[in-house]
Specification:
The complex is a heterodimer of chains A (about 260) and B (about 200). Helices cover about 40% and strands about 25% of the residues of chain A. Chain A has about 260 residues and is an alpha/beta fold. Chain A has a six-stranded mixed beta sheet, with helices on both faces. In chain A, helix 7 (about 180-195) links the parallel strand 7 (about 165-170) and strand 8 (about 200-205). Chain A starts with a helix and ends with a helix. Chain B has about 200 residues and is mainly α. Chain B has nine helices and no strands. In chain B, helix 1 packs antiparallel against helix 2 (about 35-50) and helix 2 (about 35-50) packs across helix 4. The longest helix of chain B has about 40 residues, at about 110-145. The interface between A and B is medium-sized, with 26 and 22 residues.
Amino acid sequence: MALAMEAPDQTDTADHIVEVRSITKFYGSDVHALDSVDLAFPTGQMTTLLGPSGCGKTTLLKIIAGLLEPTSGDVFVKGKKVSGPGPERAFVFQDFALLPWATALRNVAFGLELRGDDRSEREERARHYISEVGLSGFEDKYPHELSGGMRQRVGLARALAVDADVLLMDEPFSAVDEQTRRKFQEDLLHLLGVEKKSVIFVTHSIEEAVYVSDQIVLLSPRPGRIHSIIRPEIDRSVSPDDIRREKNYLDTVEEIWVELRKYLD
Amino acid sequence: MGAAYVETLKPLFIGVGISATFGIFVGVGMGLNRMFQWFWEPIFVVLQAAPVAALIPLITYVYGLGLTAKVVAVIILALPIIVLNSYKAVRNANPNLIQMCISFQGTYLQQIWKVIIPNASPVIFAGLRLGVAAGFIGVILAELLITPTGVGDLITFNRSRAQYSEMYAAVFSVIAFSAFAVGLLQKAEVRYFRPEKKKGS
């Protein structure tokens, strides 16, 4: 049995940066959040976990991050089984989770500070990523002086600064307004093109999922299971506005909506 | 009057100093560790509820009439407030920030020093300010009830000679001094722990 399990390990690592195998999660004894979920996340791509609230998408993301223990099942990152957080994964939080007493600069450098990098080195790195996310000039501002969108840019820069292979994003745009959110989605795609990260993205917005993803995993609610996997195949060489008008984009949104709608009744 | 203040401030400083160091340590420990909390919490809840004026004869019985008795009076008033505030501040530290620290592989010590304590510092300092104010009550109470020395003596002495203007001068100077000490603490907090408050407000 053990031997049989190990064999596919070797072959999968090349193209799948993260893999979860038969993840089941119970909260207490009666809340069944996830039911034996098997999933592979392709290297260098953006995979979205999409589903109605209560489908366990954030739970699955936190299990991958090592912030939650699964009741059973394993998580593999780069072919190695992991338990707990690790340097190859960086998390972007829904509520930003910035230190209110630290400047944007220190917040961005916080992952490096915990790692023990010396001050000048980590601040230089942090400055670089602050400018990458478009916040130059705001290095010395405290979180309460920044707008919601800017705070999340700080959160994103912090995750980029530790140079992880995988970014785990938990509904990163749900707390920012619609205009900021669209601009942010465009910037994110551009940035990921430059940074070459694999991304696992949780959202409840169908449009957002289709717009940003290479692969969309639809989860069904209570207990969370994989309903289907969709690859939107959208041509991203055109302008953002053209993507949002493209037939393929609109059809995919519609198709997902038809699926998800079944769970609303 | 200067001499009276030196006399009053000595037990106050010692008492508040001990209360602050020991109190923050125990309070933070209680916030972090349930066993620690189980052991200490009842003691401080009872101490906080106890009417200290009634305990003072007991203090004199055990510690006599000198400096020690006054220091103990200050500690009995100041310590429970500091402990219980520190404990609640740490227990209610923002779990999202702790989770963030864990996700970036912060060690347990880093969690405590870089996230939990700065996060708890406004409430810890609120406890310290209340503790200092309570310490003033304790020291004056001790001076009125144990042995008349310092500012407490100024108040009793002037009252006994019906020199009310001097008596009120002593009373108000204590209030002003106490307010000054509390204000100083607030400054220290903003300067060392929560710099964002200086700019924002």
